[in-house]
Design brief:
It is a single chain. The protein is mostly beta strands. It contains no helices and six strands.
Length: 72
């Protein structure tokens, strides 16, 4: 079971996963610190402390493209 604190609503969410897929993110973005998902296109956008942005296919976990960060 996974618990998440929903701060802006003063709620706790309990998630019961039925299937968990995991794998290393090092290929995509070492030291990953942020992730966002484009649900419609099933793409994960992963950013890390190494200043690299990676785009990953959410279904097969294949890294589609990486970009160096332009932010300092």
């Amino acid at each position: 079971m996974i618990y998440d604190n929903i701060e802006d609503k003063d709620e706790v969410a309990a998630l019961i996963p039925t299937r968990i897929l995991s794998g290393p993110l090092a290929i995509a973005s070492p030291e990953a610190t942020a992730m966002e998902m484009d649900v419609q296109h099933r793409r994960l956008f992963i950013g890390g402390r190494n200043k690299v942005l990676a785009i990953m296919d959410a279904d097969n976990r294949q890294v589609l493209q990486t970009f160096p960060s332009v932010m300092e």
